[in-house]
Design goal:
Length: 517
């Protein structure tokens, strides 16, 4: 290699180096080719070598004997860092300079440890080292196939005096034509990953609308296509790039990404590779939701448009719908239900809180509301809401007490056929307090006996204790009495058997007492 007293060897990454195209462009095999050179230096002789500096000269240009298209952007590194520094006085020349004025490479057979010592010898210092490693990264390889010669200049000697004129030598580096698709295995992808930010943790779960950064490995010659939400992402940086920042407000629900990589092969064909990943999203935003089975929501459910469910809906908290709600099965809500439009239920409807419907309520079966029911429009019930019910007569005076199995209506009725007495019926335990009605006596002596009737109605919540009490009031004139009292219990529940025991009040705490007929 010439008159250098140190030994030099190199390797390249990639091996071998491939040339850049005459014209370069992203996303195809006309991309610039980049490479690195790793150089090791040591003393292979039997005599120590003193060295003050080493220069590495790279041929720059677009000819076959040139290595780099430009000297700009090359990143050098030297090891050991503590004993050497590397500088570039000009783009195509790199100098490795010891920290001290000279470095000593010991002869073979001497200690293998790295020793740094500064000793004044004739006005200079010496540093003892075992070897030197230099790497030059990010070299833009020239565009002509051939052999480039790297120039080596060393200010070194086996004697005691460093020469003024350097020893010189060369190292040959071959550049070969580019052959894309050398590995035709289609299953080898480009390691697509999603991270929360540059250098951040993986985006395994993000908030709805949070930004995501997609990264992948790009090999020269690759042409990439990125897909999400059933469409191709048409960003000009993707075909020849290795990163795509997904903007905020884009990933609103669990989203699958697919990266297609097409690489041409030496025989004129191409290889296609695919990478897939899915990013999970917390509190997803959905354009529509169709549930064929039961839907259970432990928090608030808010639909700004139509909520259409084929079967049951169970909400353990508030269910709020701005538009229409159609449920093919049972609608069960633990707290309040508010529907801005029409509420249509084919099966049963059970609301333990407030039921509010702005427009129309249509139920194909039973409707049970344990709290208040507010309906701004019409109510259509194909099932039972207590149009019949159970009940019986009450002796006057006397009373009946029972516990409501469901919400419903209690109607107390008073009847008087007497000229001198009135019948009074009081219903206690309703949602609005006690209600009373009186069938008044007819005190007109000229009139015939006319039957007087009146009623009192109370809305009752499930579990309430209801008492219907009948009393009589007698006028001062005395006379015969024809007084009667009745009650009717109309539940908002299953009343398929209006007169059977299943629809009767849960308990009667008092039997009706005897009265006067």
């Amino acid at each position: 290699m010439s008159d250098c007293v140190l030994s030099y060897a190199l390797t390249t990454v990639p091996a071998p180096l491939t040339v850049s195209p005459p014209k370069s462009g992203p996303g195809n095999e006309d991309e610039l080719a980049y490479g690195s050179i790793d150089l090791v230096i040591s003393n292979s002789g039997s005599t120590p070598v003193r060295c003050s500096r080493i220069a590495i000269v790279l041929p720059v240009g677009s000819l076959a004997q040139d290595l780099a298209l430009t000297g700009e952007g090359i990143a050098p590194y030297v090891e050991p860092e503590s004993g050497w520094t590397i500088v570039g006085p000009q783009p195509d020349v790199l100098l490795a300079v010891p920290t001290a004025e000279t470095a000593v490479f010991p002869a073979a057979g001497e200690t293998s440890k790295v020793r740094f010592s500064v000793e004044p010898t004739g006005g200079t210092s010496e540093v003892t080292v075992d070897g030197l490693y230099i790497t030059l990264k990010n070299i833009a390889i020239s565009n002509k196939t051939g052999v480039a010669r790297i120039g080596i200049e060393e200010w070194a000697t086996t004697g005691s005096t460093i020469p003024d004129v350097p020893n010189t030598g060369t190292l040959d580096v071959a550049k070969f034509p580019f052959r894309s698709g050398a590995d035709p295995a289609p299953g080898v992808g480009r390691a697509l990953v999603a991270v929360t930010s540059q250098g951040g943790p993986p985006a395994t779960r993000i908030d709805s609308g949070a930004p995501v950064r997609l990264e992948w490995h790009h090999v020269r010659g690759d042409n990439h296509e990125l897909y999400m939400d059933g469409r191709r992402v048409t960003d000009p940086s993707i075909p020849g790039g290795s990163v795509y920042p997904v903007p905020a407000g884009t990933v609103l629900r669990d989203t699958a990404f697919a990266l297609k990589t097409v690489t041409p092969t030496p025989d004129g064909g191409f290889v296609t590779r695919w990478d897939h990943l899915t990013v999970c999203v917390t509190d997803q935003t959905l354009a529509s939701l169709t549930v064929s089975g039961a839907l259970t929501a432990k928090g608030a459910v808010t639909a700004e448009k139509t909520l259409d469910v084929a079967e049951a809906v169970t909400a353990k908290s508030t269910l709020g719908v701005t538009g229409n709600t159609t449920v093919g099965g049972t609608l069960g809500v633990t707290e309040n239900t508010t529907v801005g439009g029409t509420l249509g239920v084919t099966g049963n409807t059970t609301v333990e809180g407030t039921l509010g419907v702005t427009r129309k309520l249509t139920a194909g079966n039973d409707v049970q509301v344990d709290g208040a029911a507010t309906i701004g429009g019409s109510v259509f019930l194909n099932g039972a809401v207590g149009s019949g019910g159970t009940g019986s007569s009450i002796a006057v005076p006397g009373q009946v007490t029972f516990t409501a199995k469901t919400s419903g209506i209690v109607v107390g009725m008073a009847q008087s056929g007497s000229r001198y007495s009135s019948c009074v019926v009081t219903v206690s335990g309703g949602a609005g307090g006690d209600v009373r009605t009186t069938a008044c006596a007819d005190n007109d002596p000229k009139s015939q006996h006319h039957v007087q009737m009146s009623s009192a109605t109370a809305f009752v919540r499930k579990g309430a204790t209801v008492t219907v009490k009948a009393e009589h009031q007698t006028s001062s004139d005395g006379g015969w009495n024809y007084l009667y009292a009745y009650y009717r219990w109309i539940p908002f529940g299953n009343i398929s058997s209006l007169s059977g025991s299943e629809s009767s009040p849960e308990s009667l705490s008092d039997e009706p007492s005897s009265g006067t007929a």
